[in-house]
Amino acid sequence: MTLVNQATQPVLDIRGLTVRLPARADRENAIEGVSFSVLPHEILCVVGESGSGKSVTAHSVMGLLPPKQLTATAGQVLLQGDDLLKKTPDEMRALRGARMSMIFQEPMTALNPLMSIGDQIEEILKIHTDMNARERMARVVEVMDAVKMPEPERLIHSYPHQLSGGQRQRVMIAGALALEPVLLIADEPTTALDVTTQSQILKLIKDIQRTHGTAVLFITHDFGVVAEIADRVVVMQHGLVVEQGEAKSVLTNPQHPYTQMLISSVPSMTPPMRPATAEAPVVLETQELCKTYSDRSLFRATRETRAAHNVDLTVRRGETLGVVGESGSGKSTLARCIVRLINPTSGQIQIDGHDIAGLSESRLRENRRLVQIIFQDPYRSLNPRRTVGASIIEGPMNFGVDKAEALTRARDLMKLVDLDPGSLDRFPHQFSGGQRQRICIARALAMKPEVLIADEAVSALDVSVQAQVLELLDDVRKRFNLAILFITHDLRVAAQVCDRIAVMYKGEIVEHGIAAEVFGAPGHEYTQALFDAAPGRDFEFGNFAAA
Amino acid sequence: MSAITERTGLGFRSRMTNLRRSLLAQHPTMVIGGSMLIVMTACAIFAPWLFTGDPITFNPIDRLKSPGDTFWFGTDMFGRDIYSRTIYGTRISLVIGLSAAVLSVAFGLVIGLAAGYVRILDAILMRVMDGLMAIPGILLAIALVSLSGASLLTVTIAITIPEIPRVVRLVRAIVLSVREEPYVEAAVAAGTRLPLILIRHILPNTIPPLIVQATYVCASAMLTEALLGFLGVGTPPEIPSWGNIMAEGRTYFQLAPWIIFFPGAALALTVLAVNVLGDGLRDTLDPRIAKKM
């Protein structure tokens, strides 16, 4: 820390940067009067929710703003004293990669699928240096080694699709570091990755920053990540910097109300005490539920993928069972089987004691009402061509409720989910993401279900909106005595809303128990690894709501 | 993404004014194509009142007159007025173009929805469509016409059938992507029956691309009709169509080029108008494709 505080010249100094939005946007400027600096040897995190202007800031530093749509109208961006806003496109091109470089959220789309990864890194050296082929190859292997890729000599010949998400992000970092830039900009580099991979990448970025002395501008929406790696923090809201300072002081003693609200919204990793629900009747029970995808082909052996295998779980009335796991663990397959959007291969799904696993579509229909689902993506969950009212009353009207009655109920439900009952005749695009998710909850409740399945229902939402939707879910659970199956990859969210937790790994439930016990003393080694990987796990985010 | 959709949240009326304004400013070709088609349609409907004479009766005294004051487009070898025949021919071209477009879209839509949503039907239907696509369209049309005799109906059917597979493929592709949308799955979970899911949630997504496809079918149907007429297997000779006017004028081409020129020009203009309108519609209805072009 003392080393950081030494007043050296900042690597990047942004002074009063203002970027104008196109004429018809919801506000005049994407960012306004943004000023902060990144010192050598430090990781500066820029945090904010979607639309706060954090990515616009990063892109203006790199000179990657979409031409004609976004233009910097005021301020300076000084990279080691040079004003980047005054550079010509050619000069910027020479700077990018050499003195500053950037890594992106989605490593698959940022890499060229038709070029081997070795060639892609070599290309950077070819453009910016006059090394010969042998020197370039040696350097490629060297940087691949620096980002801890196993067997770099062999892997340089592989193509992006042959690597895992984490490895691809390592390749991106290797490419970014090939020319030893003074500044590395990381735009949500771990958001698309699983939590265990994320922790490895964060560790890598931290190591590199330490060994190479690269200054890092790290953009994220996740306060866990901030607690994990940041030296200093800049908090942005609506295009303005509202607070900046040492990471520790901002996280423990935020001054601005927005920062306080954001940090208070971060769910704690410690589950709260919850009343036991062991006596309530079981509403949903699966027994040895399996879903196997088989890929049949005439000319080769059938390939089988076990997406879910022998899943046994029970959910009681008024209880929330959390299913946690990483991508590909089979959580969503499980949810879709229970709603019977896909047909399970074998096993039983008991709803109120009736097995629905093998029912034909026509017999199944009368049971459809009992299980409802809320999806992850609020933008695709509602038919864009139908009013939200029509979407909400569709289900009840399928089961013979008349239109007037269904509409009255829809109005009550809109009130319940804190939306204006008068807006039933509006279309989905007139609502924000959080509001749409509320509408989806209202639509599910309109069916008077016994079981509600939330499939990553808050994962696409900003942290402050997420907290509100979680509160709403908990409220409807109590009010209607619902059984909720809560599927998430986010351990913090799971800790807060779940009574019991089931951990899924490679299609199987590896651990199952009361939330407080699973979080307190994870039994299975995978659960342990998962919990250890959660960013900022040792950091208890305070509640500043009252402040 | 949310910002973009939110910005388009306007009332219906202001959206329509915007549409009109953007039409003129951004798609002048679409306005031109549309107006040309309106003129053509008016010609077809009001043919008897557009200073036309009898397009069918022979009039040997006036044979092979060159264009002039009496006969604006000249006359053919039987003394019939080319202007009247061309104007009346508009009816055949437009009727066949329009009915081929409507019929192929209607059949293609039903088959495409079935193939896209019902797994078992998919393989069977698509193989049949592959089979249809493998037969050259003109050949199929000639075979059908020679089997059942030339009439407006058989020509329309003959032209429609080869167009159906293309529509089916388009609809099926859209259905396959839309059926995975969470809002469709939510409707399934809410117990909505299959026909309603198709009509409410899936069908509306297919309409914009189908309108565009229909214009292309229309243009190609008019060309095929003319071609069939030219080959002598199109509409019967007593009904003047651009195709058979040109076919009859073929032997007199060096002597009386106007017999072929005027119906040919009318055909080219109409097809151009329809295609230009189709391109314009595609740009407005599906801006994503337009940007990629």
SSE inventory with pairings:
The complex is a heterodimer of chains A (547) and B (293).
Chain A: H1 2-5, E1 12-20, E2 29-38, E3 43-47, H2 54-62, E4 71-79, E5 82-83, H3 89-95, E6 100-103, H4 107-110, H5 117-128, H6 133-146, H7 152-155, H8 165-177, E7 183-187, H9 195-212, E8 215-220, H10 223-229, E9 232-237, E10 240-246, H11 247-252, H12 257-265, E11 282-297, E12 300-316, E13 320-324, H13 331-338, E14 346-351, E15 354-355, H14 361-368, E16 371-374, H15 388-398, H16 403-416, H17 433-446, E17 451-455, H18 463-480, E18 483-488, H19 491-497, E19 500-505, E20 508-514, H20 515-520, H21 525-533
Parallel strand pairs in A: 3-8, 3-9, 6-7, 7-8, 13-18, 13-19, 16-17, 17-18
Antiparallel strand pairs in A: 1-2, 1-4, 4-5, 9-10, 11-12, 11-14, 14-15, 19-20
Chain B: H1 2-7, H2 12-26, H3 28-45, H4 82-117, H5 119-134, H6 137-148, H7 152-178, H8 182-189, H9 194-231, H10 242-249, H11 258-285, H12 287-292
Helix pairs in contact in B: 3-4, 3-11, 4-5, 4-7, 4-9, 4-11, 5-7, 6-7, 7-9, 8-9, 9-10, 9-11, 10-11
* β-strand number of chain B: 0
Strand content of chain A: 25-35%
What is the highest CATH level, the class of chain B? Answer: Mainly Alpha
CATH architectural category of chain B: Orthogonal Bundle
Q: What portion of residues of chain A is helical?
A: 25-40%
Count of DSSP helices of chain B? 12
| Low-pLDDT runs of chain B | 1-10
From the alpha-carbon coordinates, what is the Rg of chain A to the nearest angstrom?
26 Å
Which topology of chain B does CATH recognise? Answer: MetI-like fold
* Radius of gyration of chain B, taken over Cα atoms and rounded to an integer in Å: 23 Å
Average per-residue pLDDT of chain A, rounded, comes to 88
